[in-house]
Amino acid sequence: MYLNFETFLAEQRERIWGVIEACLKDYRDADTEVLRWMGQEAYLPLLDNHWKVVEDYPRRRGKYLRPTLVMLGYKSMLNGTPRIPDGAETITAAAMQVSEDWILIHDDLCDGSQERRGRAALHREVGLEIAVNAGDTLHEVMHRILSRNYDVLPLATARRVQEEFFRMLSRTTFGQYAEILWTQQDRFDMTEQDVLFTIAGKTAYYTIAGPLRLGAILAGATDEQLERLYRFSYPLGVCFQIRDDILDLTSDFEGQKRQTCNDLYEGKRTLMLLHLVRQATAEELQRIKEILGKSREEKTAEEVAWLRTLMDKYGSIAYAADIARKYADEAMEKLDSLDFINEDCRPLFRQMVHFVLDRKR
User: Fold this and answer.
1) Which of 254, 167, 272, 262 shows the shortest CA–CA distance to 211?
2) Tens digit of each residue's pLDDT (9 = 90 or more) over 61-86
3) Average per-residue pLDDT in the chain?
4) DSSP state for residue 219 in the 8-state scheme
5) Up-side HSE of residue 93: CA atoms within 13 Å toward CB?
6) 116 has which bridge partners?
7) What residues are paired with 115 via a beta bridge?
8) What is the rounded distance in angstroms from the CA atom of residue 136 to the CA atom of residue 36?
9) Which of 118, 223, 286, 352 shows its CA 20 to 30 Å from the CA of 57?
């Protein structure tokens, strides 16, 4: 029995990374064989350089929360004889993590991000075009990994996993579209419901609900059980994103980020920003609009610091923190409805809620 979610997270991180690393080697070797088959061995050094870029974000290794939740969703449903071969659940978990890596490459490009996991964002190291190519290749790697399910799972289960996986990704990219569009439009008429809509799409499903549901599908969950997992996961996913937005303003992510307030540089509409807009004086609001109307590169550190100070003045961060806690409390209440998960894993679900709410990075 696991009583500590962070211990479980660390153990699954190592296990899943081992699968990803092996897959990357397999696909790299396969591409090498293609060049040899085509009589193009002279270009093998170029292929080697390509794969070094492709493997960059996977090798930086993030928190592995999402693939760990695939593992937790699977383990929580085991109440007898496993329905799939031992270790087969790691395939879906590995595909989940690789999906995060290619999405982050593209997100960092869209956001003009400076850093990722303690180093410069990939596009700032290798250029826009090559970073996009690396993201595209990792997208292919994700598909290659996910397709391995057809070799080890019952056909109906493999199809069900694939359908859930792509439903999750489709909802994620739509949520990201809405956030990007509304930021580009420099909207100041957005409601909190609009912000929660983008969070539900780009985070709640992708970060919490989708991974747990994928693991549960591997274990043979019913549609009704998957629905209850979503009802538990939605408020926790909202809490996760609000906490993430707060950390962007208040934390260096345990030394991994040199620049804070990236969301302000990017002009993202967060709950804190909406709260600030509602509380600011007419004069302050005019200056807020002028600053947010600038591109990331045009904003000065002094302007962003002024926005950040204004959030403290009006309690915008504390306001968002209260909302995050309410969603965490809602998730904890809905945990009682998950009467189908085994009792050995129930403490991990409780720990997960606290981890999401109280995490430092």
Assistant:
1) 167
2) 999 999 999 999 999 998 767 789 99
3) 94
4) T
5) 29
6) 119
7) 120
8) 23
9) 352
pLDDT digits (tens, 9 = 90+) for 218-238: 999 999 999 999 999 999 999
What are residue 116's phi and psi, to 5 degrees? -155, 120
Q: State the DSSP string of 120-172.
A: E-HHHHH-HHHHHHHHHHHHHHHHHHHHTHHHHS-HHHHHHHHHHHHHHHHHH
Amino acid letter, residue 176: Q
Q: Looking at the chain, how many residues does it have?
A: 361
Q: Residues 13, 7: contact at Cβ < 8 Å?
A: no
pTM over 0.90: yes
152 vs 251, higher pLDDT? 152
Q: At what angle do helices 301-314 and 271-279 cross, to 10 degrees?
A: 80
d(CA 358, CA 353): 9
Q: Please say whether the beta carbons of 179 and 153 come within 8 A.
A: no
Three-class SS of residue 115? strand
Residue with tokens 């290659």: 144
| Per-residue pLDDT tens over the stretch 6-55 | 999 999 999 999 999 999 999 999 999 999 999 999 999 999 999 999 99
Res 268 pLDDT > 80: yes
171 touches 201 (CB < 8 A): yes
